[in-house]
């Protein structure tokens, strides 16, 4: 059944009761559908919370009330969702219950699953096997979301205490203009947000900055675009948002103080080419600067080329109004000041085709020229990397596409070297990648990678581990099937994985997995007990309380030696009371390997006011880790030395220095190492791996196999000591190289462009001879079609030390049948004979024929450079295939850099550090408030399901991201709001019927229909007034409009800046964003001037594991909105109508609402209808 099907209830409400996915196992009636039940609450089902507010200093301060009584029966709508693993009984496992009030606001989300309620390391106590996990959402009288009470706060039993509120719950405060001004995230102190008169966030402060009097500042230009950002040090400590808001308001009373102006020939304010009108005008350290509209700023030595000529001749334009043209990003914590300067040049279609970036700190310059086709796809990308004192490194990449715009071929060339085929792709009819030929040349790739999928489009195999052939790696995923006794699963969780490599240990390996009803991994059983993950236990928030794994207990284990393995880790976690923060980990297993239990004190971990880990006694980190304002570590001191880091102001790591070792420098895509004798290039990336210098002036291409999570499993390269064999014959022009049979009546020819073979006598043949490299795999394939020959045979015979092997040792395909044949061999000889022969059939002495086509023989010397296999949560297997050939690559699990220096053993993602030994992040997720994360500990990794999810940047495992989204994809968030991806960004799509508020929007022309516009205001979470048709520049800033916060967002060209994305008005939703580290984007004034202002995005992460040729967009996530009150809706509606009337009056419209030929339109507007002429009959034109 390759289609999905829905079953609706028999009522006018037309609600879905069951939703069946494609596939026989999921078809309607098989018990593996998603099921929906609808009803209302009972009288003891949902506790009733409320908020009382006190108003002072323009701030509404909330107080949580209630929790002692329940909502009366029938007051809330209840929706029960049963996932595809539900057993069909009355069990509440695998179900989600959601309760909404009559305004459509989510009040409670309840799930069921096993949890360690008392955090004692097991789930054996009463109620723990199917515990309720309740997340309550509490709103104030204005509909603002004020409190979120996650499961660990136990809000369904008792109202959270003040300590539980501070340590476990989300809290929000709003001002008299309904703007979010203070918020508190579990594990963090209060954060403050200050706005200007245009409701744009201009200053923020977190709990660590507060005692240091520091504020992050954002300043805007006339069009509301972010001009520059910086760190401001105030004269005194501010203990509440309203204090700084009031101070800011008194400092900004003039219109000219709402924006900064560009300065041309006169350089102003710290060489920024901007004025300094707005507060603060002193005590500000600039961090980022953005330029628009022209090139009248410091171009850092760049010059605009007149044109770019590759496949197409592209002329560059100087007409760059409204475009981002450059940026400067400061390097933090260095003296004197150093900046990274970028300049963007555009073609006449306003597409960036030439970018220039100079890093004054690392003394590097990167120039990227892009040759685009007519629809904007890159055909050629030329990158020039310059470093002081080094020869320029020039790479040229070319891309070929099919009719659907999919990349079919990518090549790569370094300087004047030979062109390397990085990948050639083949897709099926559904657009799924099925074959990828990697490396070397088109006719002789190093590896052919095959992908297969199930009926739901889920990846099933990367090659075939049961039959590798010449493949180096095979990987298989089972979901609703099992090969090793695993539990079949239907909801997308993975039941089993298996893999095999063509390495020293080439035995099949596998894991089978178990999960709880909340989709959290509870165990992983390996084919060998040496690598079991025996048990994982969680509390209500998903904090791990116990983890047990088997593994090595000696320094250099051998997998076949059972004495080298035992219980490696038997971890018991202790947390601070009423907190997600780890206090202690006790290892009852081996203290030396896996998790290294280096301490046994009451408190082994401490944290700062932003939730960043300060000390780790087990790793010997006794001095507080130093962090910058981006919550990134700058100095880690261990007992054996220290590690220091340098970042730019967007959080990109530039340098890592180990006190007892080398210094690593990250120049974008190019990684250098200095061991005391100067910078040496170690590698740079391409889309299928990386390139490393060969030490002789050349370069080696290293390719990588990754699994479904992006974990790097096997790295390999061509072994140049092996002579390449490449035979690819289609017999279109000749049969050269094949011997002619000598008997009368026999022969060969290439009629019909095939090798047509006619033989008369038994044991006669046609042969081909090849020189090969011993002990290196050889691949043979051909198409065969029999004609009249009775017993055709194909043979391979090798010559060893000049002597042909005995006939009985030959490799033979007897009685060759019609079809495609493949033979993979590893031979000890250095010379072979390949031949097609007439066998012992009944046609001896008679001329009979057969036909051969597409005959291929390949032998490439492939060297496995490194293999990595992992426990769930990312700890590496030891004991097999651990030999490193060449230089070990530091990027491994999730494709992230592993820092093993001084025993740190931390994966350093873009946003925070991850410890695979304990399965937790060390800092809070900056996107912890998003979507499905708010009911989980902000320190969790991959939602505790590391088999299905990854988190390579430390920013939410599975949030909507344009880098992975497809146009038309729909995403539903916790509050019921639905978003659809339009190909560029996520847009609000649908809301509950009860949420619709119709706002009459006037027409921009008196002769056009006006249209009703729905404000999809999901009370408590959404505020939106869409005013189509009005002139945006006429919107008065004196109107009280709502604002909201969201986390996630986009970066303007030039990098992520520490600041805020302002509010937007027009055909877009009106909102304001606040991002974790501050991200730029279109703002209120900008969209007033041009609602379709283009914003160019780039990936701020830029970590080396990402190919430079493929710039992934940043994380863009559906924002969380705040609502309009009923009074505000009326105010805005009345204001829009007033503006419309004035607009019509100025345009000279003379509408008459009492005209007999008018008809009332649904939007409340009227359109004149011409009277129909009578008396004339229509006639066709002659």
From TrEMBL:
<dbReference type="InterPro" id="IPR022385">
    <property type="entry name" value="Rhs_assc_core"/>
</dbReference>
<feature type="domain" description="DUF6443">
    <location>
        <begin position="2"/>
        <end position="39"/>
    </location>
</feature>
<feature type="region of interest" description="Disordered">
    <location>
        <begin position="1138"/>
        <end position="1182"/>
    </location>
</feature>
<feature type="compositionally biased region" description="Basic residues">
    <location>
        <begin position="1143"/>
        <end position="1161"/>
    </location>
</feature>
<dbReference type="InterPro" id="IPR050708">
    <property type="entry name" value="T6SS_VgrG/RHS"/>
</dbReference>
<dbReference type="InterPro" id="IPR045619">
    <property type="entry name" value="DUF6443"/>
</dbReference>
<dbReference type="Pfam" id="PF20041">
    <property type="entry name" value="DUF6443"/>
</dbReference>
<protein>
    <submittedName>
        <fullName>RHS repeat-associated core domain-containing protein</fullName>
    </submittedName>
</protein>
<feature type="compositionally biased region" description="Polar residues">
    <location>
        <begin position="1096"/>
        <end position="1114"/>
    </location>
</feature>
<feature type="compositionally biased region" description="Basic residues">
    <location>
        <begin position="1169"/>
        <end position="1182"/>
    </location>
</feature>
<feature type="region of interest" description="Disordered">
    <location>
        <begin position="1096"/>
        <end position="1120"/>
    </location>
</feature>
């Amino acid at each position: 059944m390759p289609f999905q099907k829905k079953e609706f209830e028999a009522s006018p409400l037309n609600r879905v009761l069951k939703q069946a996915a494609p596939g026989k196992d999921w078809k309607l009636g098989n018990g593996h559908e998603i099921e929906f039940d609808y009803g209302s609450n009972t009288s003891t089902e949902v506790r009733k919370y409320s908020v009382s507010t006190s108003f002072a200093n323009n701030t509404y301060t909330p107080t949580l009330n209630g929790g002692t009584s329940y909502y009366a029966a029938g007051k809330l709508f209840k929706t029960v969702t049963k996932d595809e693993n539900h057993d069909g009984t009355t069990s509440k496992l695998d179900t989600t219950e959601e309760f909404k009030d009559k305004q459509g606001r989510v009040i409670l989300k309840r799930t069921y699953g096993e949890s360690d309620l008392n955090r004692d390391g097991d789930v054996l106590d009463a109620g723990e096997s199917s515990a309720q996990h309740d997340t309550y959402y509490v709103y104030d009288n204005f509909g603002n979301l004020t409190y979120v009470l996650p499961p660990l706060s136990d809000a369904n039993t008792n109202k959270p205490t003040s300590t539980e509120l501070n340590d476990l719950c989300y809290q929000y405060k709003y001002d008299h203009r309904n703007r979010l001004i203070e918020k508190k995230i579990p594990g963090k102190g209060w954060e403050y947000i200050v706005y200007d008169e245009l409701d744009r966030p201009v200053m923020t402060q977190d709990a660590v900055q507060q005692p240091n009097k520091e504020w992050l500042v954002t300043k805007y230009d006339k069009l509301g675009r972010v001009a520059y950002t910086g760190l401001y040090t105030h004269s005194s400590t501010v203990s509440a948002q309203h204090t700084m808001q009031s101070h800011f308001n008194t400092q900004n009373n003039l219109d000219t103080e709402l924006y900064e102006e560009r300065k041309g020939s006169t350089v102003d304010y710290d060489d920024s080419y901007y004025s300094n009108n707005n507060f603060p005008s002193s005590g500000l350290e600039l961090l980022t600067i953005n330029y628009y509209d022209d090139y009248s700023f410091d171009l850092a030595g760049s010059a605009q080329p007149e044109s770019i000529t590759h496949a197409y001749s592209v002329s560059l334009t100087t007409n760059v109004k409204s475009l981002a043209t450059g940026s400067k990003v400061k390097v933090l914590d260095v003296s004197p000041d150093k900046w990274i300067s970028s300049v963007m040049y555009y073609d006449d279609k306003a597409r960036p085709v030439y970018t220039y970036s100079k890093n004054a700190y690392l003394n590097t310059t990167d120039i990227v020229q892009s040759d685009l086709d007519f629809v904007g796809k890159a055909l050629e990308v030329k990158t020039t990397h310059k470093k002081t004192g080094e020869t320029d490194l020039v790479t040229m990449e070319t891309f070929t596409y099919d009719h659907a715009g999919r990349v079919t071929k990518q090549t790569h060339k370094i300087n004047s070297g030979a062109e390397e085929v990085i990948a050639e792709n083949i897709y099926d009819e559904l657009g799924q990648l099925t074959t990828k030929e990697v490396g070397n040349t088109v006719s002789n790739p190093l590896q052919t990678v095959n992908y297969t999928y199930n009926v739901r489009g889920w990846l099933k195999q990367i090659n075939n581990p049961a039959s590798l052939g010449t493949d180096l790696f095979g990987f298989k995923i089972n979901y609703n099937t099992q090969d090793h006794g695993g539990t079949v699963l239907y909801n997308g969780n993975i039941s089993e994985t298996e893999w095999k490599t063509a390495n020293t240990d080439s035995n099949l390996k596998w894991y089978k997995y178990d999960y709880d009803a909340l989709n959290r991994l509870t165990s992983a059983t390996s084919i060998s007990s040496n690598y079991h993950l025996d048990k994982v236990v969680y509390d209500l928030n998903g904090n791990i309380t116990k983890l047990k794994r088997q593994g090595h207990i000696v320094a250099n284990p051998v997998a076949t030696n059972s004495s080298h393995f035992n219980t490696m880790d038997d971890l018991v976690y202790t947390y601070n009371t009423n907190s997600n923060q780890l206090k202690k980990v006790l290892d009852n297993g081996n203290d030396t390997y896996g998790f290294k239990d280096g301490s046994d004190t009451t408190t082994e971990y401490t944290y700062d006011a932003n939730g960043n880990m300060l000390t780790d006694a087990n790793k010997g980190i006794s001095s507080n880790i130093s962090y910058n304002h981006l919550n990134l570590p700058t100095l880690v001191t261990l007992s054996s030395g220290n590690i220091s880091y340098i970042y730019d102001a967007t959080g990109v790591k530039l340098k890592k220095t180990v006190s007892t070792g080398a210094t690593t420098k990250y120049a974008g895509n190019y990684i250098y190492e200095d061991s005391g004798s100067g910078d040496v290039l170690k590698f740079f990336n391409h889309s299928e791996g990386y390139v490393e210098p060969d030490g002789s002036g050349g370069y080696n291409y290293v390719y990588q196999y990754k699994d479904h999570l992006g974990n790097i499993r096997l790295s390999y390269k061509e072994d140049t000591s092996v002579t390449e064999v490449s035979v690819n014959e289609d017999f279109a022009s000749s049969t050269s190289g094949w011997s002619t049979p000598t008997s009368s009546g026999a022969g060969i020819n290439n009629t019909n462009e095939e090798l047509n073979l006619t033989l008369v006598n038994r044991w006669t043949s046609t042969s081909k001879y090849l020189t090969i490299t011993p002990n290196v795999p050889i691949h043979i394939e051909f198409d065969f079609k029999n004609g009249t020959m009775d017993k055709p045979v194909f043979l391979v015979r090798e010559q060893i030390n000049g002597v042909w092997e005995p006939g009985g040792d030959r490799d033979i395909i007897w009685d060759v049948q019609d079809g495609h044949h493949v033979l993979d061999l590893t031979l000890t000889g250095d010379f072979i004979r390949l031949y097609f022969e007439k066998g012992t059939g009944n046609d001896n002495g008679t001329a009979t024929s057969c036909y051969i086509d597409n005959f291929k023989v390949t032998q490439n010397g492939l060297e496995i450079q490194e293999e990595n296999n992992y426990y769930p949560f990312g700890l590496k297997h030891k004991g097999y295939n651990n030999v490193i050939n060449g230089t070990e690559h530091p990027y491994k699990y999730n494709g992230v850099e592993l820092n093993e220096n001084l025993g740190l053993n931390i994966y350093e993602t873009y946003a925070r550090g991850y410890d695979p030994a304990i399965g937790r992040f060390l800092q809070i997720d900056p996107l912890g408030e998003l979507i499905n994360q708010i009911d989980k500990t902000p320190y969790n990794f991959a939602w505790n399901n590391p088999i299905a999810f990854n988190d390579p940047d430390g920013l939410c495992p599975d949030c909507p991201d344009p880098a992975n989204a497809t146009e038309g994809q729909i995403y539903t968030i916790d509050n019921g709001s639905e978003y659809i991806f339009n190909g560029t960004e996520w847009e609000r799509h649908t809301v509950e019927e009860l949420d619709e508020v119709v706002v009459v929007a006037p027409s921009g022309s008196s002769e056009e229909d006006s249209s009703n516009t729905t404000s999809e205001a999901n009370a408590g979470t959404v505020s939106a007034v869409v005013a189509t048709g009005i002139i945006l520049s006429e919107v008065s800033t004196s109107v009280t409009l709502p604002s909201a916060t969201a986390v996630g967002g986009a970066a303007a060209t030039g990098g992520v800046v520490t600041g805020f994305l302002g509010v937007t008005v027009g055909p877009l939703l009106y909102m304001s964003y606040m991002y974790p580290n501050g991200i730029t984007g279109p703002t209120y004034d900008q969209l007033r001037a041009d609602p379709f202002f283009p914003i160019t995005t780039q990936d701020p992460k830029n970590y080396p594991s990402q190919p430079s040729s493929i710039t992934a967009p940043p994380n863009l996530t559906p924002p969380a909105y705040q609502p309009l009150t009923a009074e505000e809706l009326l105010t805005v509606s009345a204001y829009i109508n007033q503006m419309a009337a004035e607009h019509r009056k100025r345009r000279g419209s003379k509408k008459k609402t009492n005209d007999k030929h008018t008809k009332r339109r649904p939007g409340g507007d009227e359109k004149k209808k011409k009277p129909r002429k009578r008396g004339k009959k229509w006639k066709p034109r002659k």
